[in-house]
Structure formats: structure tokens, C-alpha cells
Design a protein that fits this description.
With about 240 residues, this protein is α+β, with helices and mostly antiparallel strands. The protein has helices spanning about 1-20, 25-30, 190-200, and strands at about 35, 45-50, 60, 65-70, 80, 90-95, 100-110, 115-125, 165-170, 175-180, 180-185, 215-220, 225-235. It is globular.
């Protein structure tokens, strides 16, 4: 009986500890320059695209988890950071539901021609969402650069489980990681990137899509239920 109680107590303590670590920075991370973009309680530091405040509907914060939960036609829309970033390392935990589509955009700004645009780390249920079979050569698969570049082999967790996106941007070079594994690396000034742009849906943008020095970070409302936590960034 005592052994059983000890096991139950240990599990309970472990769960409390795990929750306590969500949306927090360790002393080491603080020293390294990491900053939380989502504090786990509210949308301080975030706003809506082209507006001065974040949406009041469509996004839910519960137990330290930020979830886009559109109900019928009531969508909150995308949210973006108030600050802009150039060279950075970004970490985001995300969890999708079956058939869901979302994304993390960066270098998100208003273009002279094309409106508000940003490079997108695709978040997608590759097995169930039709977008996975659209585009060219899988360039809309999860962890790729949406409608531009295809990710390589990857290790991903299924809908209902957490995954971690990592984006490292330094100068014109960008690398995407999924659950600690590098899946895509590209140079925004390369011929390969320019060719991908010319074939993409962004080929009319001015300047060239992605040819900006800095921009906002965006979490996408694509009318599907998707959750985020541990959103943190470090300037490089």
C-alpha cells in the first residue's frame, strides 16, 4: 500500500513539475539571451495583423497553452508579435488536431506589392490534410517552407502530441528543425531560392518574397484547432 501511494505521489509531483516548466526560462536560458514571446497567461506582446490589439475571440489560453479555437464563423485571425526580429533562433512547441493546418511565419511585414507576407514554417497533418498533396514536390509538407521548399526526412509526432519547431535565421541563411532534427536549410539570396520564389504563389511580390531584413513572428489561425506553448526567441 505504501509503495503504491509513493508511486502515485511521485507521478503527481512529476506532473506538477512538468506544468511548472511550461512557458518559463531557466537561469541558463536567461543568461543566453532567450526571451519568452508567450507568457502562458495572456497575449501581452502580441497584436493582430495591421491592428493595435490582439483578437478577443478565436484564441483560448488555458493551463499555459495557447489554442486557436474558431467556432463557426467566429475566427480571431492571425496574431503577430509587436516586435520585429532579424537574426534569431525561435523555438515553438505545437500540437495539431487531425486534419489541421497552421503555420509559423517569420520576417512578416507589409510588402510594397503583395500585402502582408512572411516566410512560413508549415504546420500540417500531412496524412489527412489535402494541402500535403498540393503545390510542387511536397513543398507544402510540415516543417517545409510553405509553397517554396520541401523538407527532408523528419521525425514527427502524430496529431494530439507535442512537436517542437525550431527556426534559425542568420543573415540570409535560414534553417528549419523539427523535434531537434534539421529538415531544411536555404539561403534567401541563392539561385535555388529565387527559382522557388518564381514558381510560388508569391512571385508577384515586391520586393522579392523573403528579401527583407526583419519582421514580426506570426502564429496562424487557419480555422483549425492548433495549440502552442513554450514560444521563445533569442537574438543572434
Amino acid at each position: 500500500m505504501k509503495k503504491t501511494m509513493f508511486i502515485i505521489l511521485s507521478i503527481f509531483i512529476a506532473q506538477i513539475y512538468a506544468v511548472a516548466q511550461v512557458n518559463t526560462l531557466t537561469p541558463k536560458e536567461v543568461k543566453q539571451g532567450w526571451k519568452l514571446l508567450f507568457n502562458g497567461s495572456n497575449l501581452d506582446g502580441w497584436t493582430s495583423v495591421g491592428k493595435d490589439a490582439p483578437p478577443t475571440i478565436g484564441w483560448e489560453i488555458k493551463d499555459g497553452i495557447l489554442t486557436v479555437k474558431p467556432e463557426g464563423e467566429k475566427r480571431g485571425g492571425d496574431i503577430i508579435t509587436k516586435e520585429q526580429y532579424s537574426d534569431f533562433e525561435l523555438l515553438v512547441d505545437f500540437k495539431i488536431t487531425e486534419g489541421a493546418n497552421s503555420g509559423i511565419k517569420y520576417f512578416f511585414v507589409r510588402y510594397e506589392k503583395g500585402g502582408w507576407l512572411g516566410l512560413e514554417y508549415q504546420i500540417l497533418d500531412d496524412e489527412r490534410h489535402p494541402d500535403a498533396k498540393m503545390g510542387r514536390d511536397g513543398n507544402r509538407l510540415q516543417a517545409g517552407l510553405y509553397d517554396m521548399l520541401t523538407p527532408g526526412s523528419k521525425k514527427e509526432n502524430p496529431p494530439g502530441e507535442w512537436n517542437q519547431a525550431r527556426i534559425v535565421a542568420k543573415g540570409t541563411k535560414v534553417t528549419h528543425y523539427l523535434n531537434g532534427k534539421k529538415v531544411l536549410s536555404f539561403d534567401r539570396k541563392s539561385d535555388a531560392y529565387k527559382k522557388a520564389w518564381e514558381l510560388s504563389k508569391y512571385n508577384k511580390s515586391e520586393p522579392m518574397f523573403g528579401d527583407v531584413k526583419q519582421g514580426h513572428i506570426l502564429l496562424q489561425d487557419h480555422a483549425d484547432i492548433v495549440s502552442f506553448r513554450n514560444v521563445k526567441i533569442k537574438s543572434l
